[in-house]
Write a structure and sequence with these properties.
The protein is α+β, with helices and mostly antiparallel strands and 480 residues long. Among the domains are: 34-146; 389-475, no CATH class. The protein contains 13 helices and 21 strands. Strands 10, 11, 12, 13, 14, 15, 16, 17, 18, 19, 20 and 21 form a 12-stranded antiparallel beta sheet that branches. Helix 6 (160-167) crosses helix 9 (291-312). The longest helix has 22 residues, at 291-312. The chain starts with 20 loop residues before the first helix and ends in a 5-residue tail after the last strand.
Length: 480
C-alpha cells in the first residue's frame, strides 16, 4: 500500500466552506423532520428511545414507532411517542432475523398498516427505515433509510477477496469453493496454517451477518458438525486460514466527493471451544492499536471506500472487519451498510446523528458537508470520547422487562456490587427477539482498554445469576 502519485484510490478533497460542519449537519438533519410527523420503522422499541427524543427536540410534530420487538433498555414514554410492537414468529438464527427485518419493511404486517394509517391519514409523514430495508417507500410514504440491492450484494463474503485485490489491500490467502464436503475439506487441508480454517457461507440464501454462518474448523469432528449448518444455505463457501489476533474493524463513509475514514473499533468476538464457535459480543472504540497499525487500517478503509465509490457508485457508511494479526491488519469481510461500529463512533458527536446523515446521503440529499470535513469532525471526537459495551443474545427466553444490576470487580471477574463496592458498570438482562439479551456497560471507558475480557466476565456472571448456560468462553489475544 505504498506510492501515491497517480494511484486511483487516493483523492485530494477540497473544503468549500468555513462554516462549522457540526452545526451545519445538525441543522440539515433537523430540517428533514421539523414540523413533520415521523414514523420509525423496524428494530426494537428500546433502540428507538434516543432517536425519539432527538426528533422531538428538532421539532417533529409527532413520532410513531413501529417496532418488531420490545428490546432491552429504557423505552420511550407515551408522552414522547406513540408505539406499536408487532412481534413476529420466533427465529432460530440471526440470519433468519435479518431476513425478517427486510420483510418487515417490504410487506408490513396488518397491525402496522392500521396504526400507520391512523397516525398519518393524509400520507404526509416521513418514514425512517432500518439499514436492512430494501424498499424506497414505506406504505407509499416518503422514506429515508434502507439501501439499494446493489449495495447488499457487496456483502457476499465469497466476493470480498476479489474486492480487496482490486482495491490494493493486503489479505490472507483464501479459496472459494462449491458447497461440497470433499472440496471444502481439500481447501481446508491446503490452507490450514496450524490453527485450523474459517468457513464462511455466501449470500445465496440471504445475508450472512454477525458471524452467524462463519465457522472455525480445526478437526474432522468440527467439519462434520459444520457441514450440515453451512452446506444447505450456501452455493459457495470461502475457506481461509484461522487468523490469530484481535478482531477489529475500520469504518468509512462515502460521499460524492470522496471518503471519510474513522478510527479503529474493537469487535468483541469471543471463542467457545466446545463446541468450537465464534460469539459476536459487542463493539468498543476504547481499544487503541499502535499508530502504524491504526494508519494501516485507515488506509485500507480509504482504498476500499474509493473502490466502492468509483466502481460501484456507492454512497454511505461501510465497515471492513478483520483481525490485527502479527503480520498486520487482515480484512475478512465487508459490511456495505451502516454497521454497528458507526453508531458507536457517532455517539462521540451526539449533535450529529450519523445514521440520519446516512439515510439522506444514499437518497442523494446534499447534507452540506464534504468527506474531509466529516472526517475532521468525527476522528478527533471519537478519540476523545470513547464508547462501547459487551452484549450477547441468549437463545433462552428471559424476563419480560429489563433487569439492571450495578456490578463491581473487573475483567478477571464481575459480581453484583454490594455496600461499599466500587461500581464499575451495569449488567442488564432483558427481552430480545431471539431470546434474551445480556449487556455490560462500563461506568468509565479508559482509552486503550479492551472490552473482550469484560465480555468473558459478563458471560460467567450471567451463567451464575440467570442460568443462561453460555459456558466458558475466551477472548482473542493481542499479538502485536
Amino acid at each position: 500500500m505504498d506510492g501515491e502519485g497517480a494511484d486511483p484510490y487516493r483523492r485530494v478533497m477540497t473544503v468549500p466552506s468555513t462554516t462549522d460542519p457540526t452545526a451545519r449537519l445538525a441543522e440539515r438533519c433537523a430540517e428533514l423532520v421539523r414540523g413533520r410527523k415521523v414514523v420509525l420503522v423496524g428494530g426494537v422499541l428500546a433502540g428507538a428511545t434516543r432517536r425519539v427524543r432527538q426528533l422531538r427536540e428538532w421539532g417533529a410534530e409527532a413520532v410513531l414507532v413501529v417496532a418488531d420487538g420490545t428490546g432491552t433498555g429504557e423505552l420511550p414514554g407515551p408522552d414522547e411517542a406513540s408505539a406499536v410492537v408487532v412481534a413476529g414468529p420466533q427465529h432460530a438464527t440471526l440470519s433468519e432475523e435479518v431476513a425478517s427485518w427486510t420483510r418487515f419493511a417490504a410487506d408490513p404486517p396488518a397491525e402496522a398498516r392500521q396504526v400507520v394509517e391512523a397516525f398519518d391519514p393524509d400520507s404526509t409523514a416521513l418514514c425512517l427505515l432500518s439499514p436492512f430495508a430494501l424498499v424506497d417507500r414505506y406504505l407509499s410514504r416518503e422514506s429515508l433509510g434502507g439501501r439499494p440491492r446493489s449495495f447488499l450484494a457487496l456483502e457476499d463474503k465469497s466476493l470480498n477477496d476479489a474486492l480487496w485485490d482490486t482495491a490494493g489491500v493486503s489479505r490472507a490467502p483464501a479459496r472459494v469453493v462449491d458447497a461440497d464436503p470433499d472440496r471444502l475439506r481439500a481447501a481446508a487441508e491446503d490452507l490450514d496454517a496450524g490453527q485450523g480454517t474459517v468457513w464462511s457461507a455466501d449470500a445465496s440464501q440471504g445475508m450472512n451477518g454477525g458471524g452467524d454462518r462463519v465457522r472455525w474448523v480445526v478437526t474432522d469432528e468440527d467439519a462434520r458438525a459444520v457441514l450440515p449448518t453451512l452446506v444447505p444455505v450456501s452455493a459457495r463457501i470461502r475457506v481461509q486460514p484461522f487468523l490469530e489476533g484481535a478482531p477489529c474493524s475500520i469504518h468509512g463513509f462515502v460521499l460524492p466527493d470522496g471518503v471519510a475514514v474513522f478510527r479503529p473499533v474493537e469487535l468483541v468476538v469471543l471463542r467457545s471451544m466446545s463446541p468450537r464457535r465464534f460469539l459476536y459480543s459487542g463493539i468498543s472504540t476504547c481499544w487503541d492499536p499502535s499508530r502504524s497499525d491504526r494508519d494501516e487500517m485507515r488506509e485500507v478503509a480509504r482504498r476500499v471506500g474509493l473502490h466502492l465509490l468509483c466502481v460501484h457508485d456507492y454512497l454511505g457508511g461501510f465497515s471492513v472487519d478483520g483481525v490485527l494479526t502479527d503480520d498486520g491488519f487482515r480484512p475478512t469481510e465487508l459490511n456495505s451498510r451502516f454497521a454497528g461500529g458507526l453508531s458507536t463512533i457517532g455517539k462521540s458527536v451526539p449533535a450529529v446523528p450519523l445514521d440520519l446523515v446516512q439515510m439522506a446521503t444514499i437518497r442523494g440529499i446534499d447534507m452540506g458537508v464534504t468527506a474531509e470535513q466529516l472526517e475532521e469532525v468525527l476522528v478527533p471526537a471519537a478519540d476523545a470520547r470513547r464508547y462501547g459495551s459487551a452484549y450477547y443474545v441468549v437463545p433462552a427466553p428471559g424476563p419480560s422487562e429489563t433487569e439492571s444490576l450495578d456490578v463491581a470487580g473487573g475483567p478477571d471477574g464481575l459480581r453484583v456490587a454490594g455496600s461499599g463496592d466500587l461500581v464499575i458498570g451495569t449488567v442488564e438482562h432483558g427481552p430480545a427477539n431471539l431470546g434474551s439479551l445480556i449487556r455490560f456497560t462500563p461506568a468509565e471507558m479508559t482509552p486503550g482498554m479492551r472490552m473482550a475480557p469484560y465480555a468473558v466476565a459478563m458471560f460467567a456472571l450471567a451463567d451464575r445469576l440467570w442460568g443462561t448456560g453460555l459456558g466458558p468462553v475466551e477472548a482473542a489475544p493481542d499479538v502485536r
